[in-house]
Design goal:
Distance between the termini: 27 Å
Structural class: alpha/beta
Mean pLDDT: 93
Number of domains: 4
Low-confidence stretches: 1-10
CATH superfamily of the largest domain: MoaB/Mog-like domain
CATH architecture of the largest domain: 3-Layer(aba) Sandwich
CATH class of the largest domain: Alpha Beta
Length: about 425
């Protein structure tokens, strides 16, 4: 899609997933507010300034194994037998290695001056104060050289990285006590509908429990966002406008479920148009055709259908990458896609791209295949709990068992 593509929200042509995502990201403005946090509190935060090492890692030549540090040239005499002259545990520095001697050494301990190899203890024979080291022990064996992992001045974590436990460990390994990160993204959420009540309340005829609140909160908290919960918004233009205005004033992004279609009780879409602008509506995907994107008083707004499967799907496809980019995450935002084979037939294609709930299993021949949930309904939330990911079924495509399919695992969409 060209950079100047800007469809009217009333354009009757349905946008493809890629067109819609490109349009969304073209409107995304990442946070600029920064804060400093202790490294131990950096999990899930987005790094604003790169972490650069001021030290080499390792800081010195050290032993990769428990064993004996020796000079390889000394092994030819006496069939490798050497007196053990010293013991060097991790955290201690030994004396220079005298010629014709060995040093008992432990993993991580500095290599003593004069030693050029380490023989692992399993290959050595100990007899009192003497040790027999295999004469074929190669120079440099089992020695980790200073700086072989990280050199001074090297950038070890790039700005724009969403910090995982391994990043925190890496920052700590180069002595970084604090991290400069973007502040947490504030996201306001609400669910629209007179039929909604909260769990714990009695259900009147025609009412359902508000599962969408818990889906949205969980998805956003999994991305490290600060959630501002505006609750259930009743089906009226006034209540909808009030929720949108409050959300826009208190947050960086407003997410809503329900009210974005064209029914008489769907008030969210016209309210966004009255309060700001609507830049996107109606996509060629299933589930989730009516997805509304726009701005309310300058704050981005993203609205999904009220059915919970549609909400979950459209969040994964569109809200997740938008949130990550707003948080300052750099690079490719696409989820991991696995190519597997269909364990199902799909004889009646849809005119839209379908993201069907699926899971992986081992077929009768021992190979992995994807199977899909029997229900295509966007109201069957149990199908999402059953599934492990989505299978992509391109528009107007017939599939037979054994055909290749793209599988997107949920674990690449929920963080």
């Amino acid at each position: 899609m060209s950079a100047d593509f800007c469809p009217s929200p009333n354009d009757r042509r349905l946008l493809t997933r890629d067109e819609a995502l490109a349009l969304l990201l073209s409107h995304c403005r990442p946070l600029t507010d920064l804060e400093t946090v202790p490294t131990e509190d950096g999990l899930g935060r987005v790094l604003a300034s790169p972490v650069t090492s001021r030290i080499p890692v390792p800081g010195w030549d050290n032993s990769a194994m428990d064993g004996y540090a020796v000079r390889a040239a000394d092994l030819a005499a006496d069939d490798g037998w050497l007196p053990v002259a010293q013991r060097i545990p991790a955290g201690r520095t030994g004396e220079p290695l005298a010629r014709g001697t060995a040093a008992r050494i432990f993993t991580g301990a500095p290599i003593p001056a004069g030693a050029d190899t380490v023989a692992i203890q399993e290959r050595c024979e100990r007899d009192g104060d003497r040790v027999r080291v295999p004469v074929d022990t190669a120079v440099g064996a089992n020695i980790r050289l200073a700086g072989e992992d990280i050199t001074p001045g090297a950038e070890v974590i790039a700005a724009g990285t969403r910090l995982a436990p391994q990043h925190l460990g890496l920052a700590a390994s180069v002595g970084c006590p604090e991290l400069r990160v973007y502040r947490r993204l504030r996201v306001a959420i609400f669910a629209s509908g007179d039929e909604l009540v909260m769990p714990g309340e009695p259900l009147a005829p025609g009412q359902i429990y508000n599962s969408n609140r818990f889906i949205l909160r969980g998805l956003l908290q999994g991305l490290g966002c600060e959630v501002i919960d505006l609750g259930i918004v009743r089906d009226s233009p006034e209540a909808t406008e009030e929720a949108l205005s409050r959300g826009a004033a208190e947050s960086d992004l407003v997410l809503a479920s329900g009210g974005v279609s064209v029914g008489e009780e769907d008030h969210v879409k016209p309210a966004v148009e009255r309060l700001g602008s609507l830049d996107l509506w109606n996509l060629a995907i299933r589930p989730g055709k009516p997805v509304a994107f726009g701005h309310v008083a300058g704050t981005p707004f993203l609205g999904s259908p009220g059915n919970p499967v549609s909400l979950f799907t459209t969040f994964c496809l569109f809200a997740r990458p938008f949130v990550l980019r707003m948080q300052g995450v750099a690079g490719d935002l696409a989820p991991r896609v696995l190519v597997t084979r269909a364990g199902f037939d799909w004889p009646r294609p849809d005119k839209r791209l379908e993201l069907h709930r699926a899971r992986l299993q081992t077929g009768a021949d021992g190979r992995t295949e994807a199977v899909v949930h029997p229900s295509r309904s966007s109201a069957v939330l149990s199908s999402v709990a059953w599934a492990e990911g989505f299978v992509e079924i391109p528009e107007r495509q017939v599939l037979a068992k054994g055909d290749p399919v793209a599988f997107i695992p949920f674990d690449s969409l929920l963080h």
